[in-house]
Amino acid sequence: MGRRTGNGTRALLTLALAAAVTGCAAGPDTTEAAEAAGRRSHGKAGAAGFAVQYRTGDKAARATAYLRSRRILEKAADRLNDTVKMPHRIPFVVRACGAAEPAYDPETGSIDFCVEHVDEIRDRFENAGRGADRPDGTGGRDAHVAAVLEETAYHEGAHALIDRLGLHFTGREEDVADQFAAVMLIGQGRAGDSKALTAATDYALAAEESPFDESDLLDEHSLDGQRAANYACYVYGAHPDRHEDLVGDGRRVTEDRAEGCPDEWQQARDGWRQLLTGHLKQSL
Ligand SMILES: [Zn+2]
Questions:
Q1: Any residues with CB less than 8 A from the CB of 151 and at least 6 apart, and which?
Q2: Angle of CA points 248, 272, 36, to nearest 5°
Q3: Number of domains present in the structure of the chain
Q4: How close is the Cα of 152 to the center of ligand 1, in Å?
Q5: How many angstroms is it from 30 CA to the middle of ligand 1?
Q6: Does residue 227 lie within any of the structural domains?
Q7: Cα of 37 from ligand 1 centre, angstroms
Q8: What range does the domain containing 89 cover?
Q9: Pairing of the two strands 49-54 and 110-114
Q10: Rounded CA separation 243/135 (Å)
Q11: Which of 70, 229, 235, 239 is deepest in the core (most CB within 10 A)?
């Protein structure tokens, strides 16, 4: 369920697999799934839909202040709520998790949004010298970090939708969750393209940081390098005329793959449109 693999997170694999099994067992029957979801809500009051809760206390002041001031999760939650009818309350719980491992928890029906993840992304861009802030203190790195966090919110939001709405599909859930994030970002127009490419950059940097390990093949996620290429392919495929510069030797999308990217994008977007039939408030 977590966003990515990493050297420090493999110990969580067993837990994640157990969580995935629980998610799969949500049941094919909508009523049954809804009742199960109701039980998981632990009787908490509150409006349906995605929401944000801060539970960091005095910890992680910098990351928390950053999230709050830019309203990154609030805006992502609003966009999710404007797009999908979610009959259950799904909180993004901002907290110190002990690892940079944001994840949807099917047991609680909430999304742990770890402050360590915020710091990890900022560190990764800083270490790579990417997105330096401008002299006037605007834009730059903050915008990069915000883009990746928004992608994370949609990826984890997809797990919540799959679980709570009882959606069924073939293929790996982690790839399908990335596809939802791509659809939510690219649907925002050119600014969204840029966010999706920033997320791709983050995955590419993560791939450079953690050399391939055979244990990665056992993980539920695709390799970070593959995820980077997938996002770039969707961006190109949605608007080939806008993004010719993404394609070619040494670029984000190979010539061979580029040919199929429009179809890959269409499959991803149409697949989610179909999955969310009856649940959409506006077209994806
Ligand atoms: Zn995931």
A1: 181, 185, 195, 196, 199, 202
A2: 140
A3: 1
A4: 9
A5: 23
A6: yes
A7: 19
A8: 10-275
A9: unpaired
A10: 29
A11: 235
